[in-house]
Amino acid sequence: MALAGSPGGAGWTWRPVARDALLARAFHSCTELRGRFYLVGGLPAGGATEPSGDTVVFDPAGGQAVRLGARGGPRRSHHDAAPVGGRWLCVVGGWDGSRRVATVAALDTERGAWEAWSAAPGSRPPAGLSSHTCTRVSDRELRVAGREGGTRTQRRYGNVYTLRLDPGARTYSYKEEGCHTASRSGHCAALLQTPGPRPGHQLLLFGGCNSAEPEVAGQWSHGKLGEEPPAAPHLREQLARLVSTGQGSRQGPRGLRHHSCSVVGPFAVLFGGETLTRARDTICNDLYIYDTRRSPPSWFHFPCADQGLKRVGHRTCLWNDQLYLVGGFGEDGRTPCPQVCILDLFI
User: Fold this and answer.
1) What is the CA radius of gyration of the chain?
2) Distance separating alpha carbons of residues 203 and 113, to the nearest angstrom
3) In which domain of life is the source organism classified (predicted)?
4) DSSP readout, 269-316?
5) I want to staple 310 with a disulfide (CB 3.0 to 4.6 A). Which of 58, 109, 302, 331 is the partner?
6) Which of 323, 335, 255, 242 is nearest to 290 (CA)?
7) Would 2 be classed as within a structural domain?
C-alpha cells in the first residue's frame, strides 16, 4: 500500500478494515448513531440516475454490514442526514430520481421503522435541495446550506436555513436565515470553534464552487451552542503532529466538490472529491487539513500518489477516535468502492 507523505517524513494512508458489496455506493449519507454507521440511499454506479432506497447498517466494532429490513425508506442521493434525540436518523432533501426535494424522512432506530414526518404550520421550505449540507447546531436544530431550486431553475446564490425537528410531533420546520452565500453545490460544512479566550463557533462552507475561500454560514457567541463534537484525543494529537511537518498556507483547495469533511477538535479534515480546475483526471486523492488553532487559520495539503485512493461522492465518519472512509466512486468516477477504510497517520 502506497503511503502519502510530506517532506518531513510523515505519511498517511487509508487502511482497508472491511469490505462488503452492500457498502458499494456513492452520493449516499453515512451517519454514526449509537456506535453504528447508517448508510442511506446513494447511486449504485456512475451514470445511474435512479437512487437506491435501501439502508445498510455497518458495525465498525465487528466489521459487519447488514441491510435494514425496514420498508418505506426514502429513495435519495445527494442528500444529507443527521441524528436526532439519540434515536432518529433524519434524512433531509436530495434527489429522488425525478426531482430535488426538501422533505424529511426519519428512521426510528429503536423500532427499525421509517417514518414520514410532515411540515409544521409556518414552515418555509426550500424549493428543492441536493448536494447541500446539514449540520447539527443542537439536538433538534440543523443548519442547512446549499443552492435551492428545481430541475430547471437554480438560484445564483446559496441559501441558509434553520431546520427544527420535533420527534414527539413527527414534524419539521424550515426558516430561511437572512444571510446568503455563494452559489455552492457539493460543498462541505464544518462547525469549528473560533480561537480566543472565550471561543464561539462558526459554521464554515468549503468548496462546491470555483472559489478557494471558506464562507461563514452561521456564527454563535461563547456558550450559545450545546453541540459537542465527539472527542478524539489520539487522532487530534496525530493530526497536530502531521501538520507540524507541513508548510501552512492561507489558500485552500480551489474548485473542489463532492469531497468529504470531518471535524476533529480544531481541525477540519477534507479528503478526495472532484476538482473543477482540470478537464481530465478530475477525481482527487488529496488530504487537506484546515487548522484553526491560530488566527488566521492555515491550510495544510498532503498529496497522495496512490491512484487507488481516489474518491468522489464518499463519506467520512468519526468513531472511537478513528476516522472512517465509506463508499464513493473510485478513480474512473463510475465504480463504487465496497471498502471501509481507517485513516492511518505515520509520524
Assistant:
1) 19
2) 32
3) Eukaryota
4) EEE--EESS-SSS-BB--EEEEE-SSSS-EEEEE----GGG-BBS-EE
5) 331
6) 242
7) no
Q: Assess if residue 293 is contained within a domain.
A: yes
Dihedral sign for Cα atoms in the order 282, 285, 286, 291: positive
Residue 4 lies in a domain: no
Q: What is the CATH number of the domain that holds 232?
A: 2.120.10.80
Three cell numbers, residue 335: 465504480
Domain count, the chain: 1
pLDDT confidence of residue 347: 84
pLDDT at position 196, please? 79
Q: Would you state the cell numbers that stand for residue 271, as one nine-digit string? A: 479528503
Low-confidence ranges of the chain (pLDDT < 70): 1-9, 149-156
Q: What is the pLDDT of residue 1?
A: 52
| DSSP-derived pairing of the beta strands 4-5 and 11-19 | antiparallel
Is residue 245 within 8 A of residue 293, CB to CB? The reply is: no
Which is nearest to 343 in space by CA: 33, 7, 11, 58?
11
Q: How many CA atoms lie within 13 A of 321 on its CB side?
A: 7
Cα(260)–Cα(266) distance, rounded to whole angstroms? 17
**What is the domain range of residue 103?**
12-346
Is 7 among the domain residues? no
- 111: CB partners within 8 A, 6+ apart: none
